[in-house]
Specification:
Elements lengths: L2 H7 L3 H6 L11 H59 L4 H29 L6
Length: 127
Amino acid sequence: MSETQRKRKNISILEERKLPGKTPGRSYTAKSSLERVVRLKIEEAEAKHKRQEDKAEASHRRWKERVYTQAGVGVALAVLLLCAAVLLLNYSAEDKKWASAILTHGAAALTTYLGVKAKSRGTHDEN
């Protein structure tokens, strides 16, 4: 009997302990042990694949959130610049009124955002 055949027919006690459902000291056929080893390798491969999918999904979610945030900030800056242009250029008093209101709300929102962000990072002084 060759070495390969002996390995297939007999499983050492150490290998038996690694495989679930095996009792040490009990003899098993090579087929059942190979099936268990193959099943474990398949389960490991599936778990690794799921981890990779989860990682890719989380990365895509972060990328999407970043794109939406940047787009929102870009639109807000464009609106604020337009309002500043209305205030600085020769427009009617009514146009300047709504432009100043929008700029005031934009400045208040920015101040609130920066204050909350600083407080959440622990750099805000609470005296």
